[in-house]
Amino acid sequence: MLALASLNISSALEKGSQDSQSEEKIQKAHEILSSVSSTIRDISHQLTPLVIEKYGFRKAIEDMDHTINLSQKLKLETVIIGFGDTGKYPPMLLHNLYRIIHELVHNILRHAVATNAMIELVEHEDHISVMVEDNGVGIADYAAAKGKGLGAIKSKIDYLKGKMEIMKKKENGTLIVLEIPV
User: Which of 86, 77, 100, 80 minimizes the C-alpha distance to 182?
Assistant: First the structure.
């Protein structure tokens, strides 16, 4: 699929604006790349985040924050309280938590049209709380939002026997609060 996308882009670039099909070739390449991206995203959700195994959970979240801020597409503030010693948690809990946070940030980047976002991750004695908020357009109707991302998040939260609340903020944006028992 990547070879087909490359072929279409290469042809459009070679022939330039003189080719009446350049726009169609670029559009087709975009469709192919979107499909490949979706496939890779689905596969990646089934894999163990190596950054957690290599550097630890806290560092993985901080690295995600750094990468997003480096892109300058979104100003992300991340507050992490606790998680100095994550050895007491089952690896699957940390992997799921990382995937949930990653997906929430991905949704902000993809749908929220936000300029600022915040992640607050707090380790309590009997639960983990996560708050993610942004200043974007806000989620219109959570019940109607049936995307893969929110479905995957809901499924992970249910598996972890946690709670999730999604609210459209009055001033603009979305607030998501998660509570996961440990």
Answer: 86
